[in-house]
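Milestone M4 deliverable, item 7.
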Amino acid sequence: MIKLVSFCLLVLTTDIYAQEYVLNSDYLKNNSLKDLATEYFEQLNLAQDSVKVHINNSQGFPNHCDRFFIERTFYKIPWGKLTLPVRCNEKKYYLQIEVQVTGGYWVTKQKVAKNSVLKITMLTKKRGLINRLPSGVIRQKSAWDGQVSLYSLPQDSPITHTMLRKPWLIQAGQTITVSTSGQQFQINATGQALNNATTGQSVRVRMNNGRIITAIASHQGMATILSLLD
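Output delivered:
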């Protein structure tokens, strides 16, 4: 067991949240490096997850630290093979670790056709080793609900972000409303969309006078003007 005797502050940052995580001195004295790394990664994953950490190169790490902390680190995916920077007595070490996470993820309950809008009747939640699943596997309902499948999905396929897109707000050939505004004025006009677009994407629009403009899709059948193209 590594003896860690000083009060320390661990700062955790993930895609979901950022928070300060404080360990008191009694905890540091009575827990191993593996325990500390495990608790760190428990904070980076979902509350319902089970986390195990294996440290591959702890042999050269000191047995005693008067001052120890894990450096703030951003992990886009907080599982699998990772590097964990830590400091012991002001010296920096890079621990090579493997993080195993068991938790929930979503799979197709049935075959899903291309361009289908995903609904709860089409998917089911399973539990397993997340680090063995495809990168970008979706773990929360809000990430897929109402999204559109980019291609046909077989039954029991883990759902990933690359399989889905947002539904189109505007479709090529559709007559849409285009608006622009400034100080004390707003102008609305109609035109024909020349490409598909979802929220925040650019759409080219041929106006009724033949002029082409570039706008940003904002609502169903509506866009906001960015610029005029001669």
